[in-house]
C-alpha cells in the first residue's frame, strides 16, 4: 500500500525537503493588479517583499482551483492507493475544502483530507510527520491518528511589526491601525477555532519578542523533546541570531528556521516574526 502526501504552498517547506520526502505541493497565488503569481513557482518570498516596497495597493490572495487538485490526484492515482492532503486552516482559506471536493471527483484512489487549523511551517510540521510515516509504509489511518494527536501539543504565536497590511486587508479598522502605530503596539496573534485572533497587545517590538519567548518557555522548560521553528517575514539575520540563542538554551528542542511567504506575508506584512512548536 502506497500513500502520497499532498500539501499547499503555505506550509513553506523547502523544495529540497519536499523532494527528499516525496511531498507533492499545490500553490496558492498572490495577485498584484492583473498579475497572478503562483506562490514559490512564479514568485519567491524575497521577490515578494521587494515588490511590496514599491506597490501602493495590497495584493490579494487566492486558493488553488479545484481542477488543479483533481489533476494532481488523478496523476497520483496511477502510482498510489491513498492520498493524505494536508492544508492551511479552513477558517482562513477555501483550500482545504477544494481538496475535499476534488477527493470526491477522483476515482481509483482514496483521498483523506486534514485541516491543520493553522498555517505556515506549523502546518508544515504535520506534513513532514505524515511524509516520514508514509515513507515508512504506515497505514493512512495510523498517519491521520498521529496528526490528530499532534494538534494537542501544537502551538504558534505571531508578532506583527506593522499594522498596515492587517488594516488594508480589512482585518483591522483604520482607526485601530492609526492608534496602534502611534502607540507602537505590536499585536501577538494566534489561531483559535481555525481563525487568527489577537492574543495580546504589547508595546514595542522588543517586549513582544520577549513575550513570544515566555510563551515558548512554558512548554520548553518541561524538558520534553520538541520540534520548533522561528518564522520570519524577510528578517533572516534576526532569525539566525534567535536560532543560535535558543538552540543553546534548549538543547532538547529540534529547531529550524522558516519564513512567511507571499500569501501569509500579504496579511502579516514585512517584519512579522513567529514561533511554532509541538511535542515529539
From TrEMBL:
InterPro entries, sorted: DegV, DegV_C, DegV_domain_contain
PROSITE patterns in the record: DEGV (PS51482)
Nuclease found in the keyword field: no
One Pfam match: DegV
Molecular function (Gene Ontology), one example: lipid binding
Gene3D superfamilies documented for this protein: 3.30.1180.10, 3.40.50.10170
Keywords on record: Lipid-binding
Protein name from the UniProt record: EDD domain protein, DegV family
Amino acid at each position: 500500500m502506497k500513500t502520497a502526501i499532498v500539501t499547499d504552498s503555505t506550509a513553506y517547506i523547502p523544495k529540497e525537503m519536499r523532494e527528499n520526502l516525496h511531498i507533492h505541493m499545490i500553490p496558492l497565488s498572490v495577485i498584484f493588479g492583473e498579475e497572478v503569481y503562483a506562490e514559490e513557482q512564479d514568485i519567491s518570498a524575497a521577490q515578494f517583499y521587494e515588490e511590496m516596497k514599491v506597490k501602493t495597493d495590497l495584493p490579494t490572495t487566492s486558493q488553488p482551483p479545484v481542477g488543479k487538485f483533481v489533476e494532481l490526484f488523478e496523476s497520483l492515482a496511477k502510482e498510489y492507493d491513498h492520498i493524505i492532503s494536508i492544508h492551511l486552516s479552513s477558517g482562513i482559506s477555501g483550500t482545504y475544502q477544494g481538496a475535499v471536493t476534488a477527493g470526491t471527483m477522483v476515482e481509483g484512489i482514496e483521498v483523506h483530507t486534514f485541516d491543520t487549523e493553522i498555517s505556515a511551517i506549523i502546518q508544515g510540521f504535520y506534513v513532514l510527520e505524515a511524509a516520514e510515516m508514509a515513507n515508512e509504509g504506515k497505514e493512512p489511518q495510523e498517519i491521520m491518528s498521529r496528526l490528530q494527536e499532534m494538534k494537542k501539543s501544537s502551538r504558534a504565536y505571531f508578532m506583527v511589526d506593522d499594522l498596515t497590511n492587517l488594516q488594508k486587508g480589512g482585518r483591522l479598522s483604520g482607526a485601530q491601525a492609526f492608534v496602534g502605530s502611534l502607540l507602537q503596539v505590536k499585536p501577538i496573534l494566534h489561531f483559535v477555532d481555525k481563525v487568527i485572533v489577537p492574543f495580546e497587545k504589547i508595546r514595542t517590538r522588543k517586549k513582544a519578542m520577549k513575550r513570544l519567548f515566555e510563551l515558548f518557555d512554558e512548554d520548553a522548560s518541561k524538558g520534553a523533546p520538541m520540534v520548533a521553528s522561528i518564522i520570519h517575514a524577510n528578517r533572516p539575520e534576526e532569525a539566525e541570531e534567535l536560532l543560535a540563542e535558543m538552540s543553546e538554551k534548549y538543547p532538547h528542542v529540534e529547531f529550524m528556521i522558516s519564513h512567511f511567504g507571499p500569501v501569509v506575508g500579504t496579511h502579516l506584512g514585512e517584519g512579522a516574526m513567529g514561533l511554532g512548536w509541538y511535542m515529539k
